[in-house]
Design goal:
Helices cover about 75% and strands about 0% of the residues. It is mainly α and about 100 residues long. About 15% of the residues are buried.
Length: about 100
């Protein structure tokens, strides 16, 4: 429950630092809220297009976030499915 929000905050912080170091890294300069918004749109695969990575570095970090996000969702689904299967097995054993 803590890992996913921490991951999102980590990426938002990274984008904030990258934008401050090079304002032309994105289509606009990102503040903390903008960076979190961008992080959420990438994670949710919405991609509104209002903020986009421009530099090679920001594109690479964004691609890494995409892969890590997919892996995180897959892991969360696997853990949830495993918990449900365990609960069903325990209920069947109790009967």
């Amino acid at each position: 429950g803590v890992a996913l929000p921490a991951l999102l905050v980590l990426y938002a912080s990274t984008y904030t630092v990258m934008s401050a170091a090079d304002p032309s890294s994105f289509t606009q300069v990102l503040g903390r809220t903008d960076a979190l918004y961008y992080t959420m749109t990438v994670f949710a695969t919405v991609g509104f297009g209002d903020i986009a990575p421009v530099s090679e570095g920001t594109r690479i970090v964004t691609m890494i976030q995409m892969v890590v996000g997919l892996l995180a969702v897959g892991l969360a689904a696997k853990l949830l499915l495993g918990a449900v299967q365990e609960a069903v097995a325990r209920a069947a054993a109790a009967e």
